[in-house]
Specification:
β1, α1 and β2 form a beta-alpha-beta unit. The strands form three sheets. A five-stranded parallel β-sheet has the order 2-1-5-6-7, sandwiched between helices. The chain contains eight helices and twelve strands. The radius of gyration is 32 Å and the shape is elongated. It starts with a strand and ends with a helix. Helices cover 52% and strands 18% of the residues. By secondary structure, the chain is an alpha/beta fold.
């Protein structure tokens, strides 16, 4: 169900959509300070009729957009009034619909598009918050974690991981390539490690590399593949450990493995959901564009038909006048 909060002649507007029970049309409410208050449910949006006094309507629209971020606001304008349409768009309107004979059909398409975009924005915001919570977990987990690109570049490292490779700030590591940091004699081993993970297999490697500041006794990386796109190698989600740090401690190793597995599941869920959201957005946008093009083509065809009928009527009237003049001349 979609709730439209309308500013304008409410009863006339409702009559256009009387046969659509899925649309709940209400008057746009104003707060004590006179500014619009729009609901924030997934199907809420506002439609403001700007065909009357332009300055007041555009001010109302501007307030609605400013005080209700993320909620779509659609403007109705007089046909051919480009100045009002431009002013409404500059004020933040999601779309401007001219009040022609066929405006309800175009408005329905705009409403559907705005509601779906609004829902998509909410999903993305929720996903963003989920990602922020995930980053907080990764930052605070007492295990060194790093995300390494297929070519060896560090994409992310948490605080514990920075300590385990002798770094103090993330900008010392992010973007740097592991192949360029390790001693020459260890580069071949690192290349094999990255190739194994890139081929969607787990791998581990123990390095004698002394770290960014030369203070560490070496580091061990245990990695699983992550973010594999079709036809391209996977990145490595690696846990970092001092060499043989867990040797002989089966309980600690099992606990670490469980933490790594849980973290991996969360990361994969996050990325799969993000890709699905992107694909869903792309598919819906293409459908909306096709529907809008079809509606515009139908509107144009109707307008051309009306223009043709008008021309035919004018020609017929001219012919009748000519015949009347000829008959009058004959009688004289």
């Amino acid at each position: 169900q979609v709730r439209i909060q309308f500013a304008g002649d409410l009863e006339v507007f409702r009559r256009h959509f009387a046969d659509m029970p899925s649309l709940v049309i209400e008057a746009l409410e104003l707060g004590a300070d006179g500014t619009p208050r729009i609901g924030d449910a997934a199907g809420d949006l506002a439609v403001i009729d700007c065909s009357g006094e332009r300055a007041a309507a555009v001010k109302l629209l501007e307030d609605a957009v400013r005080n209700n971020p993320g909620v779509p606001v659609i403007a109705l304008t007089e046909a051919g009034n480009e100045a009002t349409a431009i002013a409404a768009l500059n004020a933040g309107a999601a779309e401007c619909i001219p009040r022609t004979e066929h405006f309800p059909r175009r408005l329905l398409l705009a409403v559907e598009r705005a509601v779906r975009i609004g829902r998509l924005a909410r999903e993305k915001e929720a996903l963003k918050k989920q990602g922020e919570r995930l980053r907080l977990i990764v930052e605070t987990v007492p295990v060194g974690v790093a995300l390494i690109a297929p070519d060896g570049a560090f994409l992310a490292v948490n605080r514990t991981g920075l300590e385990l490779i002798g770094a103090h700030r993330s900008n010392q590591v992010i973007g740097k390539n592991l192949l360029h940091l390790v001693p020459p004699q260890e580069r071949e081993g690192v290349q094999k490690f990255l190739a194994t993970v890139g081929a969607w297999s787990g791998a581990s490697i123990s390095l004698k590399w002394k770290g960014m500041d030369g203070s560490i006794p070496g580091v061990e990386l245990r990695a699983i593949p992550l973010r594999r796109d079709p036809g391209s190698p996977a990145s490595a989600l690696a846990t970092l450990h001092p060499p043989r740090a867990l040797e002989g401690d089966a309980g600690a190793e099992e606990a670490l493995r469980r933490k790594c597995d849980d973290l991996t599941k969360m990361l994969r869920t996050y990325e799969v959901r993000f890709r699905e959201l992107q694909e869903k957005s792309s598919l819906k946008m293409s459908k909306w564009e096709a529907a809008l093009r079809q509606a515009e083509a139908q509107t144009k065809a109707s307008e051309e038909q009306q223009a043709g009928l008008k021309q035919a009527v004018e020609e017929a009237e001219a012919r009748l006048r000519q015949l009347a003049e000829e008959q009058a001349a004959e009688r004289e």
